[in-house]
Amino acid sequence: MAKINQNYQKLSAGYLFPEIARRTNLFLNENPGVQVMRLGIGDTTEPIVPSVIDGLHKGVDDLGAVDSYSGYGPSEGIGSLRQGIAEFYNENGASIDASEVFVSDGAKSDSANIQGIFSEDCVVAVQDPAYPVYVDSNVIAGRTGLSDENGYKGLVYMPCTEENGFFPELPKGKVDLIYLCSPNNPTGAVATKEQLKTFVDYAREHKAIILFDSAYCSFITDPALPKSIYEIEGASECAIELNSFSKTAGFTGVRLAWTIVPKACVAEDARAGVLHSLWTRRQNTFFNGASNIVQSGGLAVLSKEGRVQTGNQVAFYLENASIINEGLKGKGITTYGGGNAPYVWLKTPNDLSSWEFFDKLLNECHVVGTPGSGFGPAGEGFFRLSAFGHRENVEAAVSSIANNLEI
Ligand code: PL4
To answer: Is residue 171 part of a domain?
Structure first.
């Protein structure tokens, strides 16, 4: 008799983003003809830049000629793309070898799957609030108990609050896996080198592993802020980094990402090289490689022209963030983030709960955002707006908030 994975029953609610879509659709059914402005899901909206479209076309054309046709590729990714990604890191002072780069179809799947190479009894620490995949994947893997209003039992929440500038203190006790995300989803905060160094030192001391999500690193404009954890000395001994082409190049629907597992990375029972071998084995067994067409597009993103064109697009989204920030501040709302990140994190007015503010914003302004509590207990009382919309949509949303939000 088959039995199900009972850990799924522990998941406290539906996955956040489908829940937002469900509530929005309900509102639209009840209010036919109303145009909603979507600043909820962090999904890109601008077309892919011309040099990258050329790269994607090249990938298609290569499949149409006998000399350039390719079938299954290595599950770790094509050599030239792995090399290009390693060079991208090494330009900023890291020392990554192409063999340490694992190309994939998404940072979402990698960030959910990476916990699978670690022991079931690892104690997991997450920034609170955080991208929900880190928590849910560990719940499903059985590393937590049930949840209540304070979160899941057995999980170590590291609150990111106004008081600590949205970067957490070190865990009090010993933890084994630490999820960090910078620029942060949802708060938009970016960790400094000094802040990351405290975690790298902790991880090396406790033989813990940092799982560092840098999916939004291309939004960092301040040269003093680190784009990768490998800019911190000693990080290659204790950190695995996840990154993606999704937000940099508009690849949210195209699907291309990567994970770096340095050979120097060590765990309590794993000498140098072992974690790298385990992730190789995991990917070889579970994954058949990213699409060859898409990897050709990824090479174009890394080209000189590709970097300039995608850089301009990132700057465009950052301008959106600035428009949102200014508009909300003009309304007297306290905001954070947005400067080096595509998310604006606002404090809900009049102590409204995150979901109360979601309903208010939708009903009064026809604007969809993301409730902070969906990212963890410390997100309660906050709300996230995404800067990935079309300019006219962002401007219309800001103007509707200015004119219609009653506070
Ligand atoms: C909605 C910190 C967005 N359906 O596109 P990927 O898989 O390479 O990257 C996903 C990802 C990874 N790491 C972080 C992210 O914030 C995201 C994407 N997050 C959001 O609005 O928070 C899209 C969410 C998508 C999902 O469930 O991921």
So the answer is: yes
Q: Is 57 exposed, middle or buried (0-12, 13-18, 19+ CB in 10 A)?
A: middle
Helix (H, G, I), strand (E, B) or coil at 342: coil
Distance CA 96, CA 102 (A): 12
Assign residue 77 a region (left: φ > 0; alpha: ψ between -120 and 50; beta: otherwise).
left
Q: Which atom of ligand 1 is nearest to the CA of 251?
A: 5
Beta-carbon count within 10 A of 91 CB:
8
- The two tokens of residue 338 are 């947005």
User: How far does the centroid of ligand 1 lie from the alpha carbon of residue 132, in Å?
Assistant: 9
370 CA: nearest ligand 1 atom: 21
pLDDT(231) > 90: yes
**Last residue within a domain, chosen from 251, 276, 303:** 303
> Which residue's alpha carbon is at the smallest distance from atom 19 of ligand 1?
42
At 320, which amino acid appears? N
Q: Is 1 within the bounds of a domain?
A: no
Give the residue, out of 131, 181, 301, with the most ligand 1 atoms within 8 A of its beta carbon, to mutate for a pocket test: 131
Q: Which atom of ligand 1 is nearest to the CA of 16?
A: 27
End-to-end CA distance of the chain: 57
Residue 19 scores a pLDDT above 90:
no
Q: Are residues 270 and 337 in the same domain?
A: no
pLDDT in tens, 46-96: 999 999 999 999 999 999 999 999 999 999 999 999 999 999 999 988 999
For residue range 313-367, what is the model confidence (pLDDT) as tens digits? Answer: 999 999 999 999 999 999 999 999 999 999 999 999 999 999 999 999 999 999 9
Query: For a substitution probing ligand 1, which of 108, 245, 258, 384 has the most ligand atoms within 8 Å of its CB?
Result: 108
The total number of structural domains in the chain stands at 2
- pLDDT category at 27 given cuts 50, 70, 90 is very high
DSSP state of 373: G
Q: What is d(CA 357, CA 369) in angstroms, rounded to the nearest whole number?
A: 9
